[in-house]
Design a protein that fits this description.
mainly alpha; two-stranded antiparallel ribbon; 9 helices; 2 strands
Length: about 200
Amino acid sequence: MLVKNQSPLSDELRTELIRKSVHILIAAVPSMTAFLGTALTLGILATGIVLYTTAEALRQRGCSVPIITHITRVSSRSREANHFVLGPVTLGIGAMLAIMLYPHPAASIAVYALAFGDSAASVAGKFLGRLTIPLTGGKTLAGSLACTVVVALTVAIMLQGQVLIALALGITAALLEALPTRDADNLLLPVGVGLAATLIL
């Protein structure tokens, strides 16, 4: 393991907290699917992706779209400052893939892993991440442990205490999240966890 320099609460951490607060909203997708149906939920997600993509394209040209542009600016990482922020697009597509590819409860587990597991990994990594994992592009041990615990707890609650299955899916989520894929983890995480959940269940 390598030692990672850690600073007090910083602009970077505040940005990550804002970013992941938005990220967690994708957890509403399983409830939307239950109440509205898969087709309508997919339509809402697709519409959101198109609206965001349009707003972000306009931002690149110096125009501002109320609310969307402001949220994008305050939640963008420094490396994204002058680039198209792809995260919300891959987030929406990841959720769409989960509910298209997998039945319940695997689809819900996949979306919750994306919403909660990825968010926990990012925040814990920024705040507590002194030890980085080699060959992961800077991912931290603290982040991976947080992802494992949060996903395992979520699955254990969903499956009414099936601890071994919950732990297996928590570890699966952490391994996928630790891959150095940047925003592609929004696709890889739900697809991989959903597949594992489908096979196990």
